[in-house]
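Write out the 3D structure for:
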Amino acid sequence: MSVNILGKEYDIATTTKLNLSYKNLTELPKSIGSLSNLQELYLYHNKLTSLPESIGSLSNLQTLDLTNNNLTSLPKSIGSLSKLQVLYLYNNDLTSFPELIQSLSNLQILHLYNNKLTSLPESIQSLSNLKELYLHRNNLTSLPESIGSLSNLKILGLSNNKLTSLPESIG
């Protein structure tokens, strides 16, 4: 069985990687959710302003690259991607930390730099497997105390923000 995405047929059972980058996409077809064995989805350098809820059906997804789009928010269903390990959201228009990300307990790499973030929620501590968190080039004025709970964090990028102090827990 196959699904047609942007005029090309993809086998539902065997497609594990899909690269739709540099396609000038303004929207992603809902049929993307049919690719139940997809492990890697690359959508960088498009013009996406939103994602369909069906993206939450990609239960085997491990890598999602949404770099260089025009996203201002994410669908609630993104919280269903329990196997997601890598999420690239840099160079978008996010103004707040996507709360839905906090349920992604297997997330190891999260790049949110060059957005318009002003704060992070205390709930960031639920990302206990996070190893890399890039937040530079945002509008952050403070960090939550709970950021110190990220015991697996190896890299924390914070340059070019509006921080005046760091929480004690970061030590």
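The chain has no helices and nine strands.
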